[in-house]
Design a protein that fits this description.
The complex is a heterodimer of chains A (about 200) and B (about 650). Chain A contains seven helices and six strands; from the N terminus they run αβαββαβααβαβα. Chain A has about 200 residues and is α/β, with parallel strands linked by helices. The longest helix of chain A has 14 residues. Helix content of chain B is about 50%, strand content about 5%. A seven-stranded mixed sheet of chain B has the order 1-3-2-4-5-6-7. In chain B, α2 packs across α8, α9 packs across α11 and α16 crosses α17. The radius of gyration of chain B is 26 Å and the shape is elongated. The chains are: A alpha/beta (about 200), B alpha/beta (about 650). Chain B: Belongs to the TMCO4 family.
């Protein structure tokens, strides 16, 4: 029954520097767990989760890539066909923020869907030594036409919201996704919120 | 999350030397290859089991397992290049200058459980190729692992000899009746090769395997494992006696086929892969089933099937008779105007040929039926694993190909048929070329299916003249079946008639990519050149050597064919079979110009094939087939203008 209600399967990619908390965000979202000693991802991690947005159920196939340099040659091969990308930086690390440009470049080079929805996530806002202000993040997101949110995988804050916003925006983008079933069109809900703006929390 | 799961088996040494990036890449590479090679539903279980076994041997954390399984399910990407790149940069590889240690580990893993699945071998072949390990090297590794297994067994058997003998006695001699134990001498066998084996160890391979690989194998490989791999108590195929007849077959047995010494009977060493060759007919000159295969070197342990010699000899004689009639007709000029023009329509066969037809029709139909029955018998043998649990490749021409096809059809109907047969090579096969009969073979054949055909095979056409399926015979045209397994190879330029499948077998085998003797004994190992003609981006060489190596490796094979052909030309003084350009002068000229039987037949088949080129089948050759075509066409140029032209041609 549940299978039938799923509107579509979306491929979501999580990228960003090593240690900014990509896997933690994913695990908070899919399993609602948090491990402060989260080990470095080897190669890539893969999770599936069904998410209901505006009454539409979407199955998310989430690829969480490894940030470490030695896996860097692998990541581009996962970009293909992704409808949504979550680009993560650590608000307590200016360096991870500065690297964002490079990540976007790579994304431009290797992604196959050019209207893919991009979301910038500033992680670890529970920490005290903040090096990147919310304004800086917001500015960067605006400049590159991205959604933006600040979150903390540790305290749950903003995690669910980040994924929901991303999926909502993907579903609102015509031509970016296809229904799993034949004959199903965009739901009636999708027409209402076309003028979505950048989400700020 | 990242805790290492408890492993059932100890890890393999070389896998563990890889970095985590390397291990991940190897897993992903295997997943992508498995997905590509075995996309059919019935292979799902095999794919899952194999992949989790590979991951277990590398002790991968759960996170990696999940991701790699997702790749296998087709969630991810199917581009293996990034993984190959990472693997080739691994630290352990420079030590041996190639990925050989990894291949060793793979094979060890594959045979550890006593069942070397044909699909696993195809996977290893594919992965090795991607890791730039040549086919020769892989065979060498297999060979030396087989050595290790055999010596292991020898030791064990001495220890346990007494006890086994006691047990055997207790079982009231019942077991003596079983064929497997014909060689019984304390239960286990290997006495005869225990001594012979040692000198055969290739120096290179011995070094590759070294202590570690062999040790990993030795600790787990018990007598049971070895017995299972190599077949019932070692008697195996050579000891096969027809216990149970399937259909009316009078003769059915296997003879060891030793490369280079077709008539030698002893000295077969146990290997991890075997090939069975099936002969199509016998003649007064070729009365032994092994005789046509002197240069076959597809695997190191080979057998020839001896079947229904009485009937096949009769058939061969009628083949010769009908051919001689055709020749005499050609001399009377009748052939050119009736046979050549009317052949395709298949209504105007020359009267002389038709009146002689009863000579051939009867033995042919008898042999057709018998080949079906022999195929079923072969299927029984393979299913009962008398050859051991190791992959089998089958090669046959004419009715031999029909035996194989019937065997595969029978296997496809049975349970547990997967993973037995690896490659299948059918030459001039008198079976239907309708893809619907071939599709069922997906389940049975793990590797490739080669259909070598000749458009101008007038004898085969004649045999099927009354049947409506005439134009759909696999031996006359490509099988239009879209599958990675199917390879159609047009042999029209090599084969000038059905009899050539026996006479020119060595050349044909080279043309279809079967390994032959002078290829393996070649001292220069072209390690850098990949075994399979690959898309060039896979080559990990600098562009300069890349552009050179490919043509060189190809031109050597062409040269082989050339020298053969040249030799045959100088010996017999007739023109090349299947010369491409229709020589108008010759066909207009009077029949008195025909000098020999071969000449006439060449002319005959040439004209036929020229005519059929105009037909509809021409375009749909497999890429592989085309390349062979190209090579053989190039032949003519080379003969006239020397090898240099060829190389130039290739570079263009």
């Amino acid at each position: 029954m549940e299978e039938r209600e799923v509107l579509t399967t979306l491929k979501i990619l999580i990228i960003g520097e090593s240690g900014v908390g990509k896997s933690s965000l994913l695990l908070r979202f899919t399993d609602d767990t948090f491990d402060p000693e989260q080990a470095a991802t080897i190669g890539v991690d893969f999770k599936v989760k069904t998410l209901a947005v505006d009454g539409n159920k979407a199955k998310l196939a989430i690829w969480d890539t490894a940030g470490q340099e030695r896996f860097r040659t692998l990541t581009p091969s996962y970009y293909r066909g992704a409808q949504g990308v979550i680009l993560v930086y650590d608000v307590c690390s200016k360096q991870s923020f500065n690297k964002l440009d490079a990540w976007l470049n790579e994304l431009e080079t290797f992604s196959t869907k050019h209207d893919m929805v991009k979301m910038l996530v500033g992680n670890k806002i529970d920490k005290e030594k903040r090096e990147v202000s919310k304004d800086e993040g917001l500015k960067f997101a605006r400049k590159h036409h991205m959604l933006f949110i600040e979150a903390s995988a540790k305290t749950k804050e903003g995690v669910q919201c980040a994924f929901e916003e991303l999926v909502e925006k993907i579903i609102q983008t015509p031509g970016l996704w296809e229904t799993d079933k034949q004959g199903m069109t965009l739901g009636s809900n999708s027409g209402t919120n076309q003028s979505s703006c950048y989400c700020v929390v | 999350m990242s805790e290492v799961k408890e492993m059932k088996d100890e890890a393999l040494p070389h896998f563990m030397e890889l970095s985590d990036a390397g291990q991940f890449s190897l897993g992903a590479l295997c997943a992508i290859s498995l997905k590509m090679l075995f996309e059919e539903d019935f292979n799902d279980e095999f794919k899952k089991n194999t992949l989790s076994m590979i991951l277990q041997y590398m002790k991968q954390p759960e996170q990696v397992e999940e991701a790699i399984k997702a790749i296998l399910d087709g969630q991810g990407i199917d581009d293996s290049d990034p993984y190959v790149d990472i693997l080739l940069k691994e630290e352990i590889l420079p030590k041996t200058k190639s990925a050989e240690p990894l291949v060793t580990d793979f094979i060890t893993m594959a045979i550890k459980k006593g069942n070397y699945d044909a699909r696993f071998r195809v996977l290893i072949k594919h992965v090795s190729w991607q890791l730039r390990v040549t086919w020769d090297t892989m065979e060498e590794i297999e060979g030396s692992l087989a050595e290790v297994l055999e010596s292991e067994q020898y030791e064990v058997s001495e220890d346990e000899a007494k006890e086994k003998a006691k047990k055997a006695r207790n079982s009231k001699f019942k077991r003596y009746a079983l064929i497997g134990l014909a060689t019984l001498g304390g239960g286990t066998i290997i006495g005869l090769t225990g001594g012979l084996a040692a000198p055969l160890v290739a120096a290179g391979a011995g070094a590759i395997i070294g202590g570690a690989g062999a040790a990993a194998l030795g600790t787990t490989a018990g007598v049971a494992v070895i017995g299972s791999l190599f077949g019932v108590a070692g008697a195996g195929l050579a000891g096969h006696k027809m216990k149970r007849r399937v259909g009316a077959i009078e003769e059915f047995m296997f003879e060891p086929l030793i490369c280079g010494h077709a008539l030698q009977t002893s000295g077969v060493t146990k290997q991890l892969h075997i090939t069975i060759a099936v002969t199509g007919w016998l003649t007064s000159k070729v009365q032994d089933f092994r005789q046509p295969w002197p240069s076959l070197a597809e695997s190191r342990e080979q057998y020839s099937l001896k079947w229904e010699s009485k009937y096949l000899l009769e058939l061969g004689k009628s083949f010769e008779y009908i051919t001689s009639i055709a020749v005499s007709m050609a001399a009377q000029e009748a052939l050119k105007f009736t046979v050549l023009s009317g052949l395709l329509a298949a209504i105007a066969w020359p009267a002389a040929l038709v009146s002689a037809a009863n000579v051939i029709d009867n033995p042919w139909s008898v042999c057709l039926h018998r080949s079906n029955a022999a195929g079923k018998q072969l299927a029984e043998v393979l299913l009962s694993r008398e050859q051991g649990k190791r992959p089998v490749s089958l090669i046959g021409y004419s009715l031999g190909a029909r035996v194989i096809f019937s065997c595969l059809e029978e296997l496809a109907k049975r349970k547990g048929c997967e993973g037995i047969v690896e490659d299948v090579i059918l030459l001039g096969a008198p079976v239907s070329g309708d893809p619907k009969y071939w599709q069922v073979l997906t389940k049975v054949v793990a590797g490739k299916i080669v259909n070598g055909y000749c458009r101008g095979d007038w004898l085969l056409k004649f045999l099927y003249r009354t049947s409506s399926v005439q134009l759909r015979i696999a031996g006359l045209r490509p099988v239009k079946w879209e599958n990675r397994r199917m390879h159609n190879i047009d042999l029209s330029d090599v084969v000038s008639g059905h009899m050539d499948y026996q006479n020119q077998l060595t050349t044909i085998m080279k043309a279809v990519g079967v390994r032959t003797r002078d290829e393996i004994s070649k001292p220069t190992k072209t390690q850098s050149a990949p075994v399979t003609p690959s898309s060039d981006k896979h080559l990990l060489q600098d562009p300069k050597s890349q552009s050179q190596s490919a043509p060189v490796s190809r031109s050597t094979t062409v040269q082989n064919i050339n020298s053969e052909n040249l030799a045959s030309i100088s010996e017999q003084g007739h023109s090349l079979p299947g010369t491409k350009k229709p020589n108008s002068e010759e066909s207009k000229g009077s029949s008195s110009t025909f000098k020999s039987k071969e000449d006439v037949l060449n002319e005959l088949s040439r004209s036929i094939s020229n005519e059929s080129y105009a037909g509809t089948y021409h375009t749909e050759d497999e890429p592989h087939g085309e390349s062979v075509n190209k090579e053989t066409v190039v032949d003519d140029i080379t003969i006239k203008e020397g090898v240099k032209t060829l190389c130039l041609d290739e570079q263009k």
